[in-house]
Design brief:
Blueprint: H1 12-18, E1 20-25, E2 40-43, E3 46-50, H2 52-56, H3 60-67, E4 71-72, E5 76-77, H4 91-98, H5 103-109, H6 114-120, E6 128-132, E7 135-136, H7 138-144, E8 151-155, E9 158-159, E10 184-186, H8 194-202, E11 209-213, H9 220-229, E12 235-239, H10 246-255, E13 261-263, H11 273-287, E14 293-295, H12 305-314, E15 320-322, H13 331-340, E16 346-348, H14 357-364, E17 371-373, H15 381-388, E18 393-394
Parallel strand pairs: 6-8, 7-9, 8-10, 10-11, 11-12, 12-13, 13-14, 14-15, 15-16, 16-17, 17-18
Antiparallel strand pairs: 1-3, 2-3, 4-5
Helix pairs in contact: 8-9, 9-10, 10-11, 11-12, 12-13, 13-14
Length: 413
């Protein structure tokens, strides 16, 4: 039964059945309202204003019955307190209204009352959670992500080192570490330790997309945590994560065999660059032959034509490959791409100065090719290719050309 109150005119059909002209809220009794001659009959804090015919026939017995009345016309109830109009809305309608609020306003709404807190923290409102430019205590972060977002973005943040003793510094008890449904995690340009990352990944067994960018503090311990807690990964970006060696990457490749989109741009280990590139190529060829997008940019003089050929012989399903800033690559790499990648659509060879214009023209003629990035190679070569192939997109992406969420099928907020 829906409970409402009237501050002005009540329901017309209900009032006509009762012989009433108006139902009004009355904070204090009207003078003489309890006399039989007065047509205003006070019931609790409501005043029933009767019409002339009804007021004459309103007996004392009728008044006693009316005083105990709690329901009127079956679907209405008069109560002694005013009800908020929000209480008349269904939970689904309130949640749909809350969808227009940003994260900060949702947090404020959750402080209004218990009902709003329950609705404002509904998982459907937190499919995407973003935290930027913050100094975060890991325990505070764990409390925030207990709202169970599907996509968690932590950018340009400084996460303090994880310390289990920090839980005692917070008055509220630490929440139970439930497994979360986070599927995409972006930690680009955030300072995070191996221990904090390990604790974070431990509660995200369904993670499918993990993206780093410039996280120089991470080491092989982080790679081992990824291999241990993220076996369902389909998309991984380790761009500019220079602290992970070839040993750490091999652990990831060996365990996370479902990876289809992989970014390793500019992550070469400065201490063992040659060994790193050779070992990574072997790991890719051995454990990840199903790749569809690969970024190996920034290998400089350590990536050779022989490395590329070894890789492409096993990874024949590649559609996007980025080999930019690999100075030792020649026309032999272009021939390997043409020969071993029947489904390739996008190729980036920016600043690969030893690749000749004729080789680029042969690549542009390959059936199915849609994009070629050749920044910094030869002057006006892009114009030549566009004249020969008007439908070909040339030099449209100066940076990483991978779609990190190409293999993720999730609903967005």
């Amino acid at each position: 039964m829906t409970e409402i109150s009237w501050e002005g005119t009540g329901d017309k059909s209900m009032r006509e059945d009762l012989g009433l002209e108006m139902i009004q809220w009355c904070e204090t009794p009207s003078p003489g309202s309890t006399t039989e001659s007065n047509p205003n009959i006070r019931i609790g804090q409501f005043v029933l204003i009767c019409n002339d015919s009804t007021s004459q026939s309103f007996s004392n017995q009728d008044r006693q019955k009316t005083k105990s009345m709690k329901a009127v016309s079956g679907s209405y109830r008069l109560q002694k307190r005013k009800l908020n109009s929000w209480s008349l809305l269904s939970d689904e309608l309130v949640i749909n209204i809350f969808r227009f609020l940003d994260q900060t306003d949702l947090g404020h709404a959750s402080l209004v009352c218990r009902s709003w807190k329950r609705l404002a923290l509904d998982e459907s409102l937190w499919r995407v959670m973003q935290v930027s430019d913050k100094l975060l205590d890991p325990e505070i972060l764990f409390r925030a992500i207990s709202r169970n977002p599907r996509h968690l973005i932590i950018q340009n943040c400084d996460l303090e080192d994880y310390d289990p003793l920090s839980e005692t510094l917070i008055k509220a008890p630490a929440p139970t570490r439930h497994m979360l449904n986070v599927q995409k995690l972006n930690l680009g340009c955030s300072r995070i330790s191996d221990a904090t990352l390990s604790k974070l990944l431990e509660v995200m067994p369904k993670l499918k997309s993990l993206e780093f960018g410039g996280n120089a503090e991470l080491t092989d311990a982080a790679a081992f945590a990824i291999a241990q807690y993220c076996p369902q990964l389909t998309s991984l970006s380790l761009r500019m994560v220079t602290g992970i060696s070839h040993i750490g990457f091999e652990a990831i490749a060996r365990r996370c065999t479902n990876i289809r989109v992989l970014c390793l741009g500019w992550m070469t280990d400065c201490r063992h660059e040659g060994v790193f590139v050779d070992s990574v190529i072997k790991s890719l060829a051995t454990y990840l032959p199903e790749l569809i997008q690969l970024d190996l940019s920034g290998c400089r003089e350590y990536l050779k034509d022989t490395n590329v050929e070894e890789l492409l012989k096993s990874s024949t399903k590649l559609r996007t490959i980025d080999l930019s800033d690999s100075y030792e690559l020649t026309d032999a790499t272009v021939e390997s791409i043409i020969q071993h990648l029947p489904s390739v659509e996008s190729v980036s060879l920016s600043r690969c100065h030893r690749v000749t214009v004729p080789a680029m023209q042969r690549l542009a003629q390959k059936p199915g090719i849609k994009k070629i990035n050749l920044f910094g190679c030869y002057q006006n070569v892009d114009l030549q290719l566009k004249e020969l192939h008007p439908d070909l997109a040339v030099n449209t992406q100066a940076l990483c050309s991978l779609d990190m969420h190409a293999s993720i099928d999730t609903k967005h907020h």
